[in-house]
Design goal:
One of its GO terms (molecular function) is hydrolase activity. Belongs to the pectinacetylesterase family. Its EC number is 3.1.1.-. Its main location: secreted. The protein is an alpha+beta fold and about 120 residues long. It contains 5 helices and 4 strands; from the N terminus they run αααβαββαβ. Strand 2 and strand 3 (about 85) form a beta hairpin. It is globular. Helices cover about 35% and strands about 10% of the residues. The chain has helices at about 15-20, 30-45, 45-50, 70-75, 85-95, and strands at about 55-60, 80, 85, 100-105. The strands form 2 sheets. It has a two-stranded parallel ribbon. The two termini are about 15 Å apart.
Length: about 120
Amino acid sequence: IQHVLVPASADLDKSWAKCRLNIKECDAAQMKVLQGFRSSLMDAIGKFHQNKAGGMFIDSCYSHCQTLKSATWHSPTSTRIENKTIAESVGDWYFDRKPVKLIDCPYPCNPSCYNLNFT
């Protein structure tokens, strides 16, 4: 949200300011926009989802670059989809142990999310 969907330069009236910093501050209209963004992403990856060679781990967490921190990458508190962490999923895909096509339900459904608060 902060850098792509509604960067500060596009939010001149600052109506997205709180939402950009903490997803729990988003109002119903903003959440509708975010869910629309998710829907567009799901539509865009439709054919890739059929590709046996490709892998995906798409969670509904409000966090970017989850691979940089052990708390989000691979720890007891890491985000999980079908009880698999990002690290386990990438390992399964990379080492060709099994196909990985994990897609989370829409926000805020995943209680394991590590949502960042930038306020």
